[in-house]
Write a structure and sequence with these properties.
This protein has 546 residues and is mostly helical. It folds into four domains: 21-92, no CATH class; 102-202, no CATH class; 217-341 and 348-433, no CATH class; 437-527, no CATH class. Helices cover 52% and strands 6% of the residues. The strands form three sheets. It has a four-stranded mixed β-sheet. Strands 1-2 form a two-stranded antiparallel sheet. Helix 5 (179-192) links the parallel strand 7 (167-171) and strand 8 (197-198). The longest helix is centred in the middle third of the chain and has 23 residues, at 346-368. It is globular, with a radius of gyration of 29 Å. The two termini are 27 Å apart.
Length: 546
Amino acid sequence: MSNFCAAPNCTIKSNRSASLFFRFPRDTERYKQWMENCHCKDLEDKTPDQLNRQYRLCAKHFEPSVICKSSSYRTRLKDNATPTIFDLSNQLNKPQSRQRKRIKELSEDEARQMKDSLKLCQVGWGPSNLQIFFFGTLPQICASTQSCLCALLTEVSKKWGLNMDYCRGQAHFSSGVHSNKMKAIATKLTEKYPTAVYTPSSTCALNVSLASGMALTGIQIVMSTFKKIESFFNKSPSLQLELENAISIFYQGNEEKASDLKEACRTNWTMRHDAFEVAVDVVESLLLCVDSVHDNEDLRWSDQVTHNALEISEALADFEFVAALVVLKNTLSFTRAFGKNLQGPKIDVYFAASSLTAVLHSLNEVLDNIEVYHEFWFEEAVNLAAALEIPVKVSRLYLRKHRPEAGTEIQPEGYFKEHLAPVVSQLIKELNNLFSENHLNALRYLMLVPAVMGQLKFNMSEENNVEMYRNDLPNADTLPAELHCWRVKWKHRGKVTLPSTVHETLQLAEVKFFPNVLAFLRVLSNLPVLGLEDADGNASRKRFQM
């Protein structure tokens, strides 16, 4: 049961007050009267039984005449009592205010536990509730999208007390069998809550997120192998040194390239914007390294380490991995710069919102000429396989499932063209899903950041696309005049360094004198895509606790 009064604008809590609390009635007629009087819009979807068990109103909302003392130990309401005393002065203009008290603050232990769980969905609340909330694993992986969606909404609304009507951004990062289900849930959430725009996750580079979401066997082999590589080398500086020695062997005479690859491999390169380019360049060194560790001639490594090395070696020496890696490298080269700009400085993000059309145009040209591109990509994969000394052949698992007729043979080139052909079309579809017109319009409001305005030479036009966030603006009718004043304010600042991020702008004392601008900035600060951060989500967790 909730420990606070369910009435709008009421701050009474049962554990901090001597005030009496009364349950909602189960009787249908009285229940309707209570709901009508107290204007609890966020409780309208609850049944009388749920309200009776989980929600209460404090005594200050009832006339004293309807409260009676039945004994020295018990105070109750009269049978026909209804609540009639409410403060609704702020509710109509700022319905978000009644939700603030329901947001649960995380302790350090809870935050750490949430970080350790699988981050399936990330949602941002604004502008009244400035929160970033990482939603962990669903109670169970449900059989249908609808049941998963219901489980998610139940967890968020009933357990955490958050109202999805105020959600302004959602993102997820998942791979393998869960990816399509999470995409379907994100789409359903967008349909149900149009202002909760679907964005890429800020916990990894856009290209990594795009590849992880492709439900193709070869692509998932690459992504799962990346995870094994990252885990393997992060465990031991000695293993990292072994890899760097292997890079030196393969890049003798090209010290600059060797140095760049060594530097890349000292980071979590499998999560970088150029992860697939780095992988193609370093794969020979990787295979030499893990083979050496697995051989363990000088008995330096434990049985577990040599076993893990063997697993990685077998994955790297599979032509299906090589072919899929080459296709990813070439296909995602079209989105690499776009993704880097999208998760970079705010001026780059602003211009990235306008460059998506060119990216999609290039990918559609590839799709129109896919046969030609596949020939080039297959040839590159064959050459790389030759360098790795691995055979060019069809997946053993595929041959077991699809035994060819006697006298026929499945050719590797035809097999890989067929099974990797959907990569480009899936990429185009995912980009269109991730970057809806609502999302792009939201990103265009980065022009309100002073440094972005300066880069635009203060030639920003008064935006007309305010309908999406009109309900978040204190006074949308005054927006054009306010934007003009906001531009003039920064235009004559001389050589003073202008705030370059949403966060810096929100810290300005004078921003409160521009209420519509402030509302837009708060919405932008909650879009999960803005700014690439570490996989632990430290930045988001700090914002959540703040």
